[in-house]
Amino acid sequence: MDLKKITDKTSVCPQITPQDMAAIKAAGFRAIICNRPDGEGADQPSFEEIEKAAQKAGIEAAYVPVTSGMVQDEDVAAFGSALEKLPRPVLAYCRTGTRSATLWSFHESKKRPMAEILAATKAAGYDMNGVARRIANGGKTPTDTGDARYDVVIVGGGAGGVSVAASLQSRKSNLSIAVIDPADIHYYQPGWTMVGGGIFEASQTAKTMGSLIPRDVKWIKSAVAAFEPENNAVILDGCRVVKYDRLVVCPGLKLDWDAVEGLEDTLGRNGVTSNYRYDLAPYTWQLVQEMKDGRAIFTQPPMPIKCAGAPQKAMYLSGDAWFRNGRLKDIDIQFMNAGGVLFGVKDYVPALESYIAKYDATCNFFHNLLSVDGESKKATFKVAKPDTDPEMVTVDFDMIHVCPPQTAPDFIRVSPLADAAGWVDVDQVTLRHKTFDNVWSLGDVMNAPNAKTAAAARKQAPVVADNIAADIAGRSPVAAYDGYGSCPLTVERGKIVLAEFGYGGVLKPSFPSFLLDGTKPTRAAWFLKEKMLPPIYWQAMLKGKEWMAKPEKIQVAAK
């Protein structure tokens, strides 16, 4: 816990946990303000958890959530109102503390000289010069000049961002490159299915961000507020401006937990879990081990989602555990899928259907989860089958694994880079933006019609790196992305159906069928998933070593 004092009455800090409350109390704070919306991070405690711990410690708590990088006038007013009502001294927190410091700066600008505000925040470790410029510019951040400039700016330090930084560096070592990401921890998210199945420990899927950013690449630990591509500018938390010659956008997508009524209030308890969160995947395995009988529900929302097979992977591994311990006959497995098919590429469906039969699971198509009542253990779905009127169905459960609805991040959806649906608008072959020639995108956030998987990002990073290198040299794009994605479907402990496919569902196997037939469950595919893919991710992909990921070349028609 890193407490940063701005004045005797107000301090700010990065994300806190319920376990920090005793130390916060001992430091003399009488109130806390949460400026971070629930569900923003994969390992973030909810405000409800924080509030309960605060109340137990005799500390008042207020919830003033602000979308990362988007401090509005009404947010400042709400922050000021909370400050007036709460006893002092107050501790405000968000992911890094920047939002809280920004809110305080705007609030105090009505009564303090700006020089005093800048001095106080600088002493606390926050640069609010961008706030000063925004106030002086009538509330809009000027982008004609910047606080920093780089040859290439990469927004997002996940699988796509770190990989493309390393791939770029391996091609042109003299480039000045910056990666913008506020997270302290980088997660190997494909491993969370294995955590929920009792195969991996959660700690195996996490490393510090600082240890993974390539050497000589600048890590800007901040959230993005907005893009101004006409001015080659990215606006950060605190209203700072970073300028670029070329931009790569890959911040991932947003898990919209709030879209399911009641879900946030009950996650991690009452039998409600999800492998889509680092801190909840172990709870999935706990529930599977403890469950002796009753109903287990596994949900899948409308597409697009990150790793379309993950919701049913959780179901298969749970069913396998119950099969092995002899409890399967007493457990009713229900798969509630908002879509109309088990898997989008038909070649893999027969193998999956055999496991649906093995685990005696019931597939309920066109069922979209609307609400969860954890206390009553009831889930309500909207059933919208073709050519029928929609109806609401409420189902009892003893355990429910929820895959949340997913959208593009808010700062992407409202940006000039987005298409009508909110995703970054790219050419699906070159991954170059359709409007802005010096912008590229990869990973889950862009709108190419491919599966949103880490395996896709592994193939996309060299394509983006090759095409940026070509652009710097004054040439046209040279590398093509074929839509490759992979989904290792963990149908039982020790066997996987290795789905590999490209645009249009065309099969794209990495190995000849006599070595590994991806349409059938194999132990070889399990070995690949359990033993080989994690080190390939950490030691090859994130270091720019493009093993089995060399991009296809764009074919130029003969004149």
Automatic annotation (TrEMBL):
Domain of life: Bacteria
Residue ranges constituting the Beta-lactamase hydrolase-like protein phosphatase-like domain according to the UniProt record: 2-107
EC numbers on record: 3.-.-.-
Gene3D superfamilies the record matches: FAD/NAD(P)-binding domain, Protein tyrosine phosphatase superfamily
UniProt key word Oxidoreductase: yes
Keywords on record: FAD, Flavoprotein, Hydrolase, Oxidoreductase, Quinone, Transit peptide
Example of a GO biological process term: sulfide oxidation, using sulfide:quinone oxidoreductase
Membrane-spanning residues: none
GO molecular function: FAD binding; hydrolase activity; quinone binding; sulfide:quinone oxidoreductase activity
Pfam families recorded: BLH_phosphatase (PF04273), Pyr_redox_2 (PF07992)
FAD/NAD(P)-binding domain residues: 150-263
Needed co-factor(s): FAD
NCBIfam families named in the record: TIGR01244 family sulfur transferase (TIGR01244)
Protein name from the UniProt record: Beta-lactamase hydrolase-like protein
Organism name: Tritonibacter multivorans
